[in-house]
Amino acid sequence: MQRYSYAIRLRIWHSSIDPNEITKNLNITPSTMAKAGQPRTTPKGNPLLGVHAESYWSGIPFDRPEYSSTDDLAEDALTEVVEFLEPHADFLNRLRSEGGRVLLEVCSYSCRNYALEFSPTFLARVAAIGLSLVHDVYPVQQNW
């Protein structure tokens, strides 16, 4: 078995949507959100120059911040997220049709070689609900 840890996140950018609408539609608690036109701040709330050029929303499906491949393969966990999001396809596709970006992101961590395999069926399901799939790889030493 290939050993790695990973995190899954849903990230959305849109020109004008109120991020609370995303939260309400998806029923996922956001970890980060900002509304277009609102003053920019640091993660701790300190003011920055300027305003947000677009709305941003990021959430961790199932409130599970980290996974291990020894418990759940990334492909299986991503499939569960897609199954959860499929009833929201109209909303997600609307965001994309309005120029928004909707990313399903898996960030993986390991110092060894490993592979994720996404079947054509899975990729078609991702595309059908308006998502882009991002795999962000971090080659870091793990303490296993």
Structural overview:
With 144 residues, this protein is of the alpha+beta class. It is built from 4 helices and 8 strands, in the order E-H-E-E-E-E-E-H-H-E-H-E. Strands 1, 2, 5, 6, 7 and 8 form a 6-stranded mixed β-sheet that branches. The longest helix has 12 residues, at 74-85. The protein is globular. The protein starts with a strand and ends in a 6-residue tail after the last strand.
Looking at this protein, list some descriptive labels:
single chain, 144 residues, alpha+beta, six-stranded mixed β-sheet, two-stranded antiparallel sheet, globular
Tally the helices: what do you get? 4
- Gross morphology is globular
User: What is the residue-averaged pLDDT?
Assistant: 93
Range of strand content: 25-35%
* Parts with pLDDT < 50 across at least 5 consecutive residues: none
